[in-house]
Amino acid sequence: MPLVGQTVLFISLLSSFSLVLGAPSAENIALAKKYAPQFRFHKGEIHFPSTVDFFLAGPVSLYDASGPLAGAPSPLTPSNLDSTANKGAGTYITTHVNTNLDGFLRGQDPRTSEPKSYVFIAPKDHGVVDLVYWFFCPFNLSKKIPILGWISNHIGDWEHLTVRTVNGVALSADYRSHVHSGSGNIPYSQVPKFDDDRPVSYVAKGSHGAWATPGTFTYVNAVVFKLQDETSDGGVYWNTQDALVMYEYPDTYTGEDSWLNFLGNWGNEGTNDCWWYAFHPQCDISSGWPGLVRQDTLGVAKRKRSLSAGPVDNRYMDSPLSVGLELLVLGVIWLILSLAHARVSLDWKLILHYSPRCVWYAEGLIRTSMHLFEL
User: Fold this and answer.
1) Who contacts 77 (Cβ-Cβ below 8 Å, separation ≥6)?
2) How far apart are CA 8 and CA 328, in angstroms?
3) What's the pTM?
4) pLDDT (tens digit, 0 to 9) for every residue of the chain, 375 residues total?
């Protein structure tokens, strides 16, 4: 079945789930406010969260793979975003990146504006209620890789922290970054807190991933380069308790909440004009992420997991083979360019500078190859 058809079918099945639908109860609203987190942004952060309304005021418009979407509503609003065919599946909320980098893509600084945290309240069996605190940033600043430059910046960045409660008491908090990274699931007794019992989430500079402590965290080690998140104290501290927009999840969303039904991407379609695209299909801009009503989010809300809150150590999770091969190819490109740069310049200092590094890179690439192919 085509991807669009699968997505529409998935949404049509929401009504078959056994969760009670409707507005959150007063008890669960109080619970969400009780554990509303403080997000601590890096002291060098310049791209902040925003409301959905702020982002859609852009300027943005709706595109598909061929260009501007015929018949798309203009301007886009929270109440009409899902009004196109298949609720926007296969479309992209698009803006001119360079023109707006210093404009609305900076988001709303919590010190001077009022961004929102969109909270999914997911009641389950045995007194379990999961609280998923989402926030949206108009722009995600990714990482700069030597020689290649910036890779995978994207418009639209949904990030979250999940707090699991049992009978009204927090049991654990789950910190996620780059899908499979972050500090993971932590017993609530070990979660950093402020204001007595509310969790703190450190937000990585640029990419906005969630970590439980300040510091530098490597989430990709490709031997020849590392991708790292940086978090710190001393930046903007966003207390979300008075900035919550709460939803029972899953539910039927109408009116001003219709944007939750949107099945398209919250950002531009990724570019493909970089010279390394054939080896690693991500250029300076990658495609925006989907919204909140999607299968992985629904799984968190629906799954009847064990009540155990033991921490999950995901530091040693292996990447899929395809990802490993992409990193290996990038490493080879790095090695070739480094040698070429030293040779073309005919500068003995550069040759001395690069030679030991290239030997180390080559050794690392051999180790990576042996790991990938289990030699």
Assistant:
1) 53, 56
2) 37
3) 0.75
4) 444 444 444 343 333 333 334 589 999 999 999 999 999 999 999 999 999 999 999 999 999 999 999 999 999 999 999 999 999 999 999 999 999 999 999 999 999 999 999 999 999 889 999 999 999 999 999 878 777 777 788 999 999 999 999 999 999 999 988 766 678 899 999 999 998 899 999 999 999 989 999 999 887 776 666 778 899 999 999 999 999 999 988 778 999 999 999 999 999 999 888 887 887 777 888 898 888 876 555 555 555 444 443 333 333 222 233 334 444 555 566 566 656 655 444 444 444 444 444 444 444 444 444 434 333
Contact residues for 343 (Cβ-Cβ < 8 A; gap 6+): 351
Spatial strand order of the sheet with 67-68 comes to 67-68, 61-64, 92-94
- Beta carbons of 118 and 51 less than 8 angstroms apart: no
Cα–Cα distance, 152 to 289 (Å, whole number): 11
Contact status, residue 250 vs residue 124, Cβ threshold 8 Å: no
| CA terminus-to-terminus distance, the chain | 37
How many H-runs (helices) and E-runs (strands) does the chain carry?
7, 18
Q: What is the 3-state secondary structure (H, E, C) of 4-18?
A: HHHHHHHHHCHHHCC
Separation CA 135–CA 115 (nearest Å): 8
Sequential DSSP letters for 39-106: EEE-TT-----B-HHHHHHSS-EEEETTEEPTT--SS--TTTTT-SGGGGTT-EEE--HHHHTTTGGG
Phi, psi torsion values for 351, nearest 5 degrees:
-60, -45
